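Can't attach files on this board, so I'm pasting raw text. These are the components:
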Amino acid sequence: MDFNGKVVVVTGAGSGIGAACVREFTSRNAAVAMVDRKARADGEASRDSRATGAVVEYFQADLSLRPEVERLIPEIVHRFGGIDVLVNNAGIQRYGSVTTIDEEQWDEVMDANLKSAFLMSKFAIPEMIKRGGGAIVITGSVQSVTAQRNSAHYVVSKHGLLGLARSIALDFGSQNIRANCVMPGAIDTPMLRWAASLDSDPDRVLAACDRLHIRGKMGEPEEVARVIAFLASDLASFITGAAIPVDGGLLTPTGGMLSQETGTGGANP
Ligand SMILES: NC(=O)c1ccc[n+]([C@@H]2O[C@H](COP(=O)([O-])OP(=O)(O)OC[C@H]3O[C@@H](n4cnc5c(N)ncnc54)[C@H](O)[C@@H]3O)[C@@H](O)[C@H]2O)c1
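---
Top answer:
Structure tokens for the assembled complex are below.
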């Protein structure tokens, strides 16, 4: 998995899974455009990458806004000469049901999670075609194919991202563009820690997150970033339109892992 000569754009690069992607791709010789709406360019990922002499630049943009994406893509192309890989990873987590959230809250999540990936793909794909093709990896979620309670807008946005990956795979396959969706389980990032902090007992939530997975422990951002890098690489040349769980087996057990604790047949073999 050598990305020497390749330009990789990572969105949501200032934190969590995106920051891990920056470390992964730069360690594999890619030139990386970090994109995040956060203002600061001195995030941990860019510091790490600069220390290794990697080519990495930080671009600030709110990707839910078309004018910002329309400005961003030419800036990246001007700086790096083109785009080969796009990691559509930026996203936010919010909670509510269709009766408790209002239209603004619905739009906020759709715009940050789904519209941003649409806009980035819309303006990056023509640049990829100019380079003879490329790869797009979208960070969906296990909630791209399942639902969590009280998360209607988030669940719908994540289902939509899987549809986006499949649509791009079909529409641009003949132009040598692959598109895939990774579906992480619970990953230990600032987003997950924030979600846990909403509870009166965050440690209880984090322990429950661990127990959702077959291995009894949630994922680390690097464990997702490695799969994203693989899917973006030529080693994955025959994988497109795929939904790839990176979930420690969360989607495997009937009724979920917690149901195995009390299910028929005993808790352990
Ligand atoms: N952490 C998990 O358990 C988990 C599980 C499944 C899927 N995911 C998905 O993984 C992705 C990354 O999540 P994370 O856990 O690393 O979260 P995170 O909050 O640590 O990082 C997300 C980054 O996206 C950026 N961002 C959000 N909206 C943006 C916008 N409109 N424009 C530009 N940047 C924007 C944020 O500023 C932040 O730096 C998200 O799409 C999330 O839904 C996370």
